[in-house]
Write a structure and sequence with these properties.
The structure holds two protein chains of two kinds. By secondary structure, chain A is of the alpha/beta class. Chain A folds into two domains: 42-158 and 321-374, Periplasmic binding protein-like II (D-Maltodextrin-Binding Protein, domain 2), CATH 3.40.190.10; 164-319 and 397-450, 3-Layer(aba) Sandwich (D-Maltodextrin-Binding Protein, domain 2), CATH 3.40.190. Helix content of chain A is 46%, strand content 11%. Chain A contains 19 helices and eleven strands. In chain A, the strands form three sheets. Chain A has a five-stranded mixed sheet, with helices on both faces. In chain A, strands 8-5-9 form a three-stranded antiparallel sheet. Chain A has a three-stranded mixed sheet with strand order 6-7-11, covered by helices on one side. In chain A, helix 13 (334-346) crosses helix 14 (348-357) and helix 18 (407-423) runs antiparallel to helix 19. Chain B contains 14 helices and two strands. A two-stranded antiparallel sheet of chain B has the order 1-2. In chain B, a hairpin with a 3-residue loop joins strand 1 and strand 2 (68-71). The chains are: A alpha/beta, B mainly alpha.
Chain lengths: 451, 319
C-alpha cells in the first residue's frame, strides 16, 4: 500500500515531463506557405475544378448561399460549406485561433479591409497573384484594389466597400420641418435640435464601441490616423488637432442629448430603429441589410443623401467597413479556393446580385456602370435610385487611407478609452489622447517602431 | 479506549505476517483498482495537467508580433503584479466575494433550515423551484437578466416607470457589479441549498430529541445543533464559492454585448486573460495572469480552510 502513492507520483511526473518535451518539440503552428511560386496553367485549373473537393467558407454576409449556389452550379465537383462564425471581432478571434491551432481553419474567409494587414503579418494568407488575381486589378475601383494589394502580392478579392452617406427617415424629418437633408455639419446640428424638440427622436447615434464609424468620420475630415509600411514601422496619430475638432463636434451634440450613444447591433438598438426613436444613421451603403430585418416595417420611409460636409460646397465622404474574401495559406485546395473567392466577387451575375439583393456596395467597375444596378429603384428607400447616389459618393472617398496591422487591439481599446467617454457624454477629444497612448504602448511592446 | 495500544500491536504483527505472502489475489485486487482509476487519470492528465504545464511553459516566454518568441523568465508575472488592470479586476472579484458569498450562502442556509423544519408540507416542490435556476445554463440566465435589466424595454424598468419611480439604471458603471451579484446569487442559491439540505437530513434524530427535552425551540435548535453539525457541508460551499467568484467569467462576457462600455476588457481577471489571449494576441501574458489568479485562489482557499479548522478544533476542545 505504501508503494502505490509513490508509483502514482512517478507516473504523473513522467507524463508531465513527457508533455513538456513534446510541446516544446512541436513548437508553434508553423504552416508552410501554400503558394507554389510557379504560375498556374489553365490545365491545372481545369483539373482542380473537376476534382471532387470540399471547401469551407467563413462569412457573415446574409444570403451568400445564393452566390455559392451559382458557383456550385458552374463547378458541380466542388462542394462549399458556408459557415457564419460571428460578425466582426468574434469572427476574427475564431479565425486566428483556428490558424494558430493549425486545424479547423476554412479555405476562404471574409476579411474586412482594416484586418488584412494583421493576417498578412502572421503570414496566414495565400498570395493570389500566381493564380491569376493580377488580371482582376482593372475590374475594381482604384482604392479598393489598393487595400487588398498594396504591393505586388494580392491578398484578397474585394467584395464590397462602404461609402458613407446620411440615411434618414424622411417622414420624421418632415415632421420636424426639415425638407432638405442637411448639407453642412452646422446645418446638421441645427437639424438635430429641431428633430429632437419637435419629434423626440434622435437624428442619429454615435456608437461607443464602433471604432470603425469614428474612423469613417476621420476619413471624411481628412484625418489619416494610421500608417504602416508593411514591415516594422507604424505611424499612429489619432489625437491630431483635426481629429479633435471632429471629436469636439460630436461631443457637443451628445452633451446636448441630440445624438444617442447606445451600443449598436443590440436588441434595443434594432428596436429603436423599428419604433422611430432613431430618425437617421450616418453610415455606409450596406446599412439597409441590417435594417430590413427587425426594422423592416420602416422600409419605404428612408432616404439617402451625402454626408453633411465640413465646408459648404465640398463633396467629401469617408468609408465605413467593406470586406473582401481571402484564401488562407493553410488551405489544401488553393486553386479551388481561389476560384471560389474570385467567382463570388467577380463573376458578373454573382457580383450584381450581391449589390442588388444584399445591398453590398460593389467595388467593381462593371457593376458600377451596369444600368441594372444604377437604375435600381430601391423599395427600402421609397423608390430612390440610391445606387447612383452612392456610386457618386464613392468617387469622393479619399483613396489614400491605411490601417495598422493590429486593428483588433485598436478597436477593442477604442471601446475602453473613447467609448466609455462617449457613453458618459464626456470630453471625447481628451479621450483620444488616452487611446493614442494605449495604441502606441502596445505597438512598442510588440516590437514595432512608432513614428 | 484503553484497548487501543494493544490493538495496534496486534495489527502490526498481523500485517507483517501478511506481507510475507503477498497473495496473487491481493495483487489482482490492486491491479483492478488501478484499472478502474485509469480512465479518470488519463483524462485528468491529458485535459488538466498537460495543458497546465504547457500554459506554465508559455508564461515564461514573450512573443511579439515583430520579433517572435523570446524567453522572458518571470517578466510576465512581474508585469501582471504591477498591472493596474489585473489588480483592478482582482479587487473587483474580491469585493464580489466579500459581498455576494455571505448573502448567497446565508440565504441558502436559511432556505435549507426552513425546508428541513417543515419536512412534511410541500417541501419537494419548493426545493425544486429554488433549485431550478441552477439548471438554467449561465448563458441563458445572463441573457435573460440582461433583458430584464434593460433600461428601455426591460420589464423592471417599465414597471418602475409606470409606478413613477423613474428608470432604474442596473447597467451603469456603479451598479453593474451588484446587478451581476444578483444574477449569480439567483443562479447558485439552489445548488448550495441542496448541499446543505442533504447534510441536514443526515443529522441523527436523537440530537433533536435530546435538545427538545432540554427545552430548545426551533431557532435554538437550528443555531446550536444543525449549523454546527453541517459545518463540513458549509465549508464545501464556501470553497466552491471562493473558486467560483474569483473565476467569474460567463456573466461579464455575456453582459458585455449589452453594456460594452461598462464591462471593460479587464473586468475580472479571468475575462482579462481571455481578452489578452484572443484580442491582444498576448498568449504568454494571458497564461501568466491565469496562473497568478490560480495562485490567489489557492492561497485564499487555504486560509479560509485553516480558519475554519482552527475554530472547529477550538470548539472540540471546549467540549
Amino acid at each position: 500500500m505504501n508503494k502505490a502513492p509513490r508509483t502514482a507520483m512517478a507516473l504523473l511526473g513522467g507524463i508531465a515531463a513527457a508533455g513538456l518535451i513534446l510541446s516544446g518539440c512541436s513548437g508553434g503552428g508553423t504552416d508552410d506557405n501554400g503558394g507554389s511560386g510557379d504560375t498556374i496553367t489553365q490545365e491545372d485549373i481545369d483539373k482542380a475544378m473537376g476534382t471532387p473537393t470540399d471547401l469551407t467558407f467563413w462569412t457573415w454576409v446574409p444570403d451568400i448561399q445564393n452566390q455559392v449556389d451559382l458557383f456550385e452550379a458552374k463547378y458541380p465537383a466542388i462542394k462549399v460549406k458556408v459557415e457564419n462564425v460571428g460578425q466582426g471581432l468574434s469572427h476574427y478571434q475564431k479565425l486566428r485561433t483556428a490558424i494558430e491551432a493549425g486545424e479547423g481553419a476554412p479555405d476562404v474567409a471574409q476579411l474586412e479591409y482594416p484586418y488584412i494587414p494583421s493576417f498578412v503579418l502572421t503570414e496566414s494568407l495565400l498570395d493570389l497573384a500566381p493564380y491569376g488575381a493580377d488580371d482582376l486589378a482593372d475590374d475594381y475601383v482604384g482604392w479598393s484594389w489598393d487595400q487588398v494589394s498594396p504591393a505586388d502580392e494580392v491578398w484578397a478579392i474585394p467584395q464590397d466597400v462602404g461609402p458613407m452617406g446620411n440615411l434618414y427617415r424622411e417622414d420624421i424629418l418632415a415632421a420636424a420641418g426639415i425638407t432638405e437633408p442637411p448639407a453642412t455639419y452646422d446645418d446638421y446640428a441645427a437639424a438635430a435640435k429641431a428633430v429632437k424638440e419637435k419629434t423626440g427622436s434622435y437624428i442619429s447615434y454615435v456608437a461607443p464601441t464602433s471604432a470603425a464609424q469614428m474612423e469613417g468620420f476621420f476619413w471624411q475630415a481628412g484625418v489619416k490616423p494610421f500608417s504602416y509600411d508593411g514591415k516594422e514601422t507604424v505611424g499612429i496619430n489619432v489625437n491630431s488637432d483635426r481629429a479633435k475638432e471632429v471629436a469636439n463636434y460630436w461631443a457637443g451634440l451628445i452633451q446636448e442629448d441630440l445624438i444617442s450613444t447606445d451600443p449598436d447591433f443590440t436588441d434595443e438598438w434594432f428596436q429603436k430603429f423599428a419604433n422611430g426613436t432613431y430618425a437617421g444613421w450616418l453610415t455606409a451603403a450596406w446599412a439597409p441589410v441590417f435594417l430590413s430585418g427587425t426594422a423592416g416595417e420602416t422600409s419605404g420611409l428612408w432616404r439617402a443623401a451625402p454626408l453633411p460636409q465640413w465646408e459648404a460646397g465640398t463633396e467629401v465622404s469617408g468609408n465605413f467597413g467593406g470586406s473582401s474574401d481571402a484564401v488562407l495559406a493553410g488551405t489544401e485546395n488553393p486553386i479551388a479556393a481561389y476560384e471560389l473567392a474570385k467567382f463570388v466577387n467577380n463573376d458578373a451575375e454573382s457580383a450584381l446580385r450581391l449589390a442588388t439583393e444584399q445591398f453590398l456596395f460593389p467595388p467593381q467597375v462593371s457593376v458600377l456602370e451596369d444600368p441594372e444596378f444604377i437604375d435600381q429603384e430601391s423599395e427600402f428607400y421609397g423608390g430612390q435610385k440610391v445606387n447612383a447616389l452612392f456610386a457618386e459618393i464613392s468617387t469622393t472617398v479619399d483613396p489614400d487611407f491605411q490601417w495598422l496591422p493590429f486593428m483588433d487591439y485598436v478597436d477593442s481599446t477604442y471601446a475602453e478609452t473613447v467609448g466609455t467617454v462617449i457613453a458618459e457624454k464626456g470630453d471625447i477629444a481628451a479621450a483620444l489622447d488616452a487611446w493614442q497612448e494605449q495604441i502606441v504602448s502596445y505597438a512598442e511592446d510588440q516590437g514595432f517602431t512608432v513614428e | 479506549m484503553s484497548n487501543a495500544p494493544t490493538l495496534n500491536v496486534e495489527r502490526t504483527t498481523r500485517k507483517s505476517a501478511v506481507t510475507r505472502r503477498t497473495s496473487p489475489t491481493k495483487r489482482k485486487q490492486y491491479l483492478a483498482a488501478y484499472l478502474f482509476l485509469l480512465p479518470f487519470f488519463v483524462v485528468f492528465i491529458t485535459m488538466l495537467v498537460i495543458p497546465l504545464v504547457y500554459a506554465g511553459y508559455l508564461s515564461l516566454f514573450e512573443s511579439k508580433l515583430i520579433g517572435g518568441e523570446v524567453f522572458a523568465g518571470l517578466d510576465n508575472y512581474a508585469r501582471a503584479l504591477t498591472d493596474p488592470q489585473f489588480l483592478g479586476g482582482l479587487g473587483r472579484v474580491g469585493l464580489f466575494f466579500i459581498v455576494q458569498v455571505p448573502i448567497m450562502l446565508g440565504l441558502a442556509l436559511f432556505f435549507a433550515l426552513a425546508l428541513d423544519s417543515m419536512r412534511a408540507r410541500g417541501s419537494k416542490g419548493i426545493r425544486l423551484l429554488i433549485f431550478m435556476p441552477y439548471a438554467v445554463p449561465a448563458v441563458v440566465a445572463t441573457l435573460m437578466w440582461g433583458y430584464l435589466y434593460g433600461p428601455d424595454f426591460g420589464p423592471i424598468a417599465q414597471i418602475a416607470r409606470a409606478v413613477g419611480l423613474g428608470t432604474p439604471d442596473f447597467l451603469s458603471p456603479g451598479n453593474i457589479l451588484f446587478s451581476m451579484m444578483n444574477i449569480v446569487t439567483w443562479e447558485f442559491i439552489g445548488y448550495n441549498m441542496i448541499i446543505m439540505y442533504a447534510a441536514l437530513r443526515a443529522i441523527p434524530a436523537e440530537l433533536y430529541e435530546a435538545a427538545e427535552i432540554d427545552g430548545a425551540g426551533q431557532f435554538r435548535l437550528a443555531w446550536s445543533i444543525k449549523i454546527p453539525a453541517i459545518r463540513p457541508a458549509i465549508m464545501l460551499t464556501v470553497i466552491f464559492s471562493i473558486i467560483g467568484s474569483f473565476q467569474l467569467f460567463a456573466e461579464p462576457s455575456l453582459l458585455n454585448t449589452i453594456a460594452p462600455t461598462v464591462i471593460t476588457n479587464s473586468f475580472t481577471p479571468n475575462y482579462y486573460a481571455y481578452n489578452l489571449a484572443f484580442i491582444n494576441q498576448e498568449l504568454n501574458y494571458a497564461a501568466a495572469v491565469a496562473f497568478l489568479l490560480g495562485l490567489v485562489i489557492a492561497v485564499i482557499s487555504y486560509f479560509v480552510q485553516l480558519g475554519s479548522e482552527r475554530s472547529a478544533r477550538r470548539e472540540r476542545k471546549g467540549l
